[in-house]
Amino acid sequence: MSAPVQCPVHPDVHLIEDHRAGDLVCPACGLVVGDRLVDVGTEWRSFSNERSGNDPSRVGAPENPLLSGGDLSTTIAVGFGGSDSDNSLANAQRKSMNNTDRQMTAAMSLIREMSERIHLPRNIQENASRIFKDVLDSRALRGKNNEAQAAACLYIACRKDGVPRTFKEICAVSRVSKKEIGRCFKIIIRNLETNLEQITSADFMSRFCGNLYLPNSIQAAATRIAKRAVDMDLFAPSSQLVFNST
C-alpha cells in the first residue's frame, strides 16, 4: 500500500488540488507535491454551435430510472445549427419516446411545477414521481386526466414525507378540480394498497403559524387546542374532509 502524499516540510498541512494545472500544492510553502492528477469531475467542454446560445455537455443528460430507456437514447437531427436544428432535434426526441415515457415525462414536469409553486423540496418531487410511475405501471388510472393523477401523487408524497398539504393547496397550484384529484387519490390508495397516517389540523399548525409570524407560545397553544378538539371528536379527521367540495 502506497504512503499518502504529503509535503516533506509541512507533513500535517492539508494539500490543495489545483484542478486546472493538475497539481497538489502545499498551501504553507507553495511546494508542488504531486502533478499530473486526473480530474474525475464532469467534462463540461461544449461542442455546440457557439452562436446558437446552447451549451450542452459532452456527457449527455443524467440517467432517469423512471423512463424505460433510462433517458440515455441518442437522437441525430438533420440540419446544421440554428433554431431549426434545435426544434427538429426536440421533435425527433419526442417521437422516439413511447407513450408511457411521454406520459411519465409530462407528469414529472407537472409535479416539478406544482412543487416549486408551494416550495416543496426535491425529495418530495422524486417520491411523487415514483408514485406516479407505480400508478402508470398498474394502469389503474388509465384514461384519467394526467394532471389530476400528478396532483394526487404529489398530495400522497407530502403525506408520506410528513409535510402534509391540504387538498385546497394542491388544487390551487394545479389546473384541475378538487373532485378530479380526489377521484384519482381514492383509486391510487385502493389499488396500490398505500397506508397513510391520519392527519389533523394540528399537523398544519407549525406551518400556518410560521406563515403568520406567530410566536412559539401561540403555536404550542393552538396545537394543543387542535389535538384536544380531535380527542373530543369535535371535528372529523382531515382525511374525511378532503373530498368535501364545499
Automatic annotation (TrEMBL):
Residues covered by region (Disordered): 47-66
Keywords for the protein's UniProt record, in alphabetical order: Metal-binding, Repeat, Transcription, Transcription regulation, Zinc, Zinc-finger
SMART domains: CYCLIN
Pfam families linked to this entry: TFIIB, Zn_Ribbon_TF
GO cellular component terms, A-Z: nucleus; transcription preinitiation complex
Sequence ranges assigned to domain TFIIB-type in this UniProt record: 3-34
Signal peptide extent: none
GO biological process entries: transcription initiation at RNA polymerase II promoter; transcription preinitiation complex assembly
GO MF term list: RNA polymerase II general transcription initiation factor activity; TBP-class protein binding; zinc ion binding
InterPro entries associated with the record: Cyclin-like_dom, Cyclin-like_sf, TFIIB, TFIIB_CS, TFIIB_cyclin, Znf_TFIIB
Coiled coil: none
Highest taxon, organism lineage: Eukaryota
Family the entry assigns: Belongs to the TFIIB family.
Protein name: Transcription initiation factor IIB
